[in-house]
């Protein structure tokens, strides 16, 4: 290990410790979330501090936040299905309920036992996506809970794995790139994606390993709640950028030096697909990639 790597891992360790102390803020699932489908495939554990979704050939399951949000620093702690999870998709995302929707995605694409699980991220604005970036993991995401976070304020959207920023989508409206503005709901689900998820759909779900189980914790929400009825009211959205919300504070406008370094290292080592450099899908470099 060189000294940069030592610092990198020391920071990660420190952040895990902080994470543990923060986990006490957990609230019961029912406070902020509802089961949205597959009710009989959902199990509440530890007085509602933990929820298990399972998937078999009959059904998967999902849950969503009761409210929509106009900004926030969202998080869930997730432990992914273990062993052979090829074809199985665990999803955690923010999405608006509109036709031309905004959406910020974490998708965990299962794999055969011993083969790497993929972390796919995507960003949709006004219904336009095709912005996938994919990563390998630097730990076993099926062995333990890890925190997956999305910061969304007026300045940028940042995806985090634990305390490491892995992706930034900047507010580039000044160069004509659309930026999410619509109130979004928090959603998580476990479903069969074997038509596309693993090796482009060639590796199928092995149902003899069902039920597949994903576990979730961390049901407190740091978000600016909005009334969905007012979803197109720009004035309401502006309130969500108020400095009364801590994630709008100057220190969340851009990464600090240490975060920047961790961001660069993780992308260099673990990102294995980037739409920005896929000239067959995007012959012209998307403006936000320049
Ligand atoms: C969530 O569940 C509660 C009680 O079960 C219900 O009153 C409410 O309408 C549900 N909300 C949504 C958005 O489904
Ligand atoms: C993007 O940033 C501009 C300032 O550069 C700001 O006026 C605008 O409100 C931001 N857009 C969104 C959707 O947050
Ligand atoms: C599915 O899993 C079973 C039990 O482990 C195994 O015997 C079988 O070969 C697997 N099928 C495929 C297609 O991998």
TrEMBL record:
SUPFAM superfamilies named in the record: Concanavalin A-like lectins/glucanases (SSF49899)
UniProt keyword annotation of Signal present: yes
Localization annotation: Secreted, Cell wall; Secreted, Extracellular space, Apoplast
PROSITE patterns tied to this protein: GH16_2 (PS51762)
Active site (UniProt): 103, 107
PANTHER family: XYLOGLUCAN ENDOTRANSGLUCOSYLASE/HYDROLASE PROTEIN 8-RELATED (PTHR31062)
Full protein name: Xyloglucan endotransglucosylase/hydrolase
């Amino acid at each position: 290990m060189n000294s940069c790597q030592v610092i990198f891992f020391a920071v990660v360790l420190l952040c895990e410790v902080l994470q543990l102390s923060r986990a006490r803020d957990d609230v019961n699932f029912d406070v902020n979330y509802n089961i949205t489908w597959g009710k009989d495939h959902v199990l509440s554990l530890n007085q509602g501090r933990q929820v298990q979704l399972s998937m078999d050939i009959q059904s998967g399951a999902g849950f969503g936040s009761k409210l929509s949000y106009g900004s926030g620093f969202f998080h869930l702690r997730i432990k992914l299905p273990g062993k052979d999870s090829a074809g199985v998709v665990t999803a955690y995302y923010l999405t608006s309920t509109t036709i031309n929707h905004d959406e910020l995605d974490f998708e965990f694409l299962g794999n055969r036992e011993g083969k790497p699980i993929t972390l796919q991220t995507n960003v949709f604005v006004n219904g336009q996506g095709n912005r996938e970036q994919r990563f390998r993991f630097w730990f076993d995401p099926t062995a333990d809970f890890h925190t997956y976070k999305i910061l969304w304020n007026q300045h940028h959207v940042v995806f985090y794995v634990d305390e490491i920023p892995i992706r930034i989508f900047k507010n580039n409206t000044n160069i004509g790139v659309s930026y999410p503005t619509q109130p979004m709901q928090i959603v998580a689900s476990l479903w069969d994606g074997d038509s596309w998820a693993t090796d482009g759909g060639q590796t199928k779900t092995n149902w003899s390993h069902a039920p597949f189980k994903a576990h979730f914790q961390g049901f407190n929400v740091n978000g600016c709640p909005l009334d969905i009825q007012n979803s197109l009211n720009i004035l309401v959205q502006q309130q969500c950028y108020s400095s009364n919300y801590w994630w709008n504070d100057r220190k969340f406008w851009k990464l600090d030096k240490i975060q920047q370094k961790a961001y660069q290292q993780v992308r260099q080592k673990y990102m294995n697909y980037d739409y920005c450099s896929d000239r067959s899908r995007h012959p012209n470099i998307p403006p936000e990639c320049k």
